[in-house]
């Protein structure tokens, strides 16, 4: 019984593809019992729109998000006998104000959960493209250690303000780091950067977050899923709870690299996964955290050819 709590669709995200119902149908066909929907929260400043959103306004993004929630609610009801659907959102932390906007959005739409992800450093896009990533490096005078340091500082702000249930791609800052050019990883060479990451891990564990093991990292050419094995090992050593996500951007990505993910789980000695689910009405409703024991031996993997 695998799951994912990090998904997008082309219907509500310009760099994804297909419609949201196709994602749900694919999840049903793959035997998933729990599917978390997590379209991006809208950005409120015109300068934060991406090139793909040319011609749109922040107001348009807000309308799209409202339409997403309505469609997600419709699909949850339509497929209620086949799959459990949670309705959430993935964060944006561009300014301090954007965190407050996310709080208000969560309350307004009564979202089931939030995926806490950082996609910007000091307002500059981190993962949209390698050229934009390098602009961040240039902003810090070519000092990649400072880039990593600022990333974990802003991630900590996000964790403190929102306390998201799921931590999205914890070390996304590594996405375009030029390992193939022999540039050393600041997490490996700087104790200061490492301690900032550890502080974030400890804080997230302290309030009960779940860290996703995100398979999309392999699509970006990284050695491991997010988080990479050094940080994942640290999370596990400190008793952190983990789940799995594909960060799918359309139904074609659902369960992407889950065969490879199975091997990663086994290599890291992970046999217990945590996941979110809706409490029964008699239990008061809301969201609860569940545990899947013997995760790598579960019948889903063999039934779906992993």
TrEMBL record:
SUPFAM superfamilies reported in the protein's UniProt record: PHP domain-like
Keywords for the protein's UniProt record, in alphabetical order: Amino-acid biosynthesis, Histidine biosynthesis, Hydrolase
Pathway assigned to this chain's UniProt record: Amino-acid biosynthesis; L-histidine biosynthesis; L-histidine from 5-phospho-alpha-D-ribose 1-diphosphate: step 8/9
UniProt keyword Hydrolase, yes or no: yes
Pfam families for this protein: PHP
Presence of the UniProt keyword Ligase in the record: no
Catalysis: reaction(s): L-histidinol phosphate + H2O = L-histidinol + phosphate
A GO molecular-function annotation: histidinol-phosphatase activity
GO process annotations (BP): L-histidine biosynthetic process
Name of the protein described by the UniProt record: Histidinol-phosphatase
Domain PHP: from-to ranges: 5-215
InterPro entries named in the record: Histidinol_P_phosphatase_HisJ (IPR010140), PHP_dom (IPR004013), Pol/histidinol_Pase-like (IPR016195)
GO CC, alphabetical: cytoplasm
Its EC number(s): 3.1.3.15
Family to which the UniProt record says this protein belongs: Belongs to the PHP hydrolase family. HisK subfamily.
Organism: Coemansia asiatica
């Amino acid at each position: 019984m695998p799951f994912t709590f990090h998904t997008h669709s082309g219907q509500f995200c310009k760099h994804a593809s297909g419609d949201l119902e196709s994602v749900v149908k694919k999840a049903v066909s793959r035997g998933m019992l729990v599917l978390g929907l997590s379209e991006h929260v809208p950005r409120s400043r015109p300068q934060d729109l991406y090139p793909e959103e040319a011609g749109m306004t922040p107001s348009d993004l807000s309308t799209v998000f409202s339409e997403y929630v309505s469609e997600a609610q419709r699909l949850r009801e339509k497929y209620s006998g086949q799959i459990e659907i949670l309705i959430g959102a993935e964060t944006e932390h561009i300014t301090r104000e954007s965190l407050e906007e996310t709080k208000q959005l969560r309350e307004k739409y009564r979202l089931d959960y939030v995926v806490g992800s950082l996609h910007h450093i000091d307002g500059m896009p981190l993962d949209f493209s390698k050229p934009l990533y390098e602009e961040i490096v240039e902003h810090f005078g070519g000092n990649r250690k400072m880039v990593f340091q600022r990333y974990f500082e802003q991630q900590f702000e996000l964790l403190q303000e929102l306390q998201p249930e799921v931590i999205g791609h914890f070390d996304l800052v590594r996405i375009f780091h030029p390992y193939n050019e022999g540039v050393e990883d600041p997490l490996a060479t700087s104790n200061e950067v490492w301690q900032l990451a550890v502080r974030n891990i400890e804080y997230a564990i302290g309030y009960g977050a779940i860290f996703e093991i995100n398979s999309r990292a392999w699509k970006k050419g990284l050695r491991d899923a997010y988080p990479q094995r050094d940080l994942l090992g640290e999370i596990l050593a400190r008793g952190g709870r983990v789940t799995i996500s594909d960060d799918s951007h359309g139904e074609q990505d659902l369960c992407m690299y889950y065969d490879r993910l199975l091997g990663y789980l086994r290599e890291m000695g992970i046999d217990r996964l945590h996941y979110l689910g809706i409490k029964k009405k008699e239990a008061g409703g809301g969201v609860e955290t569940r545990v899947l024991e013997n995760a790598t031996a579960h019948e889903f993997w063999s039934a779906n050819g992993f």
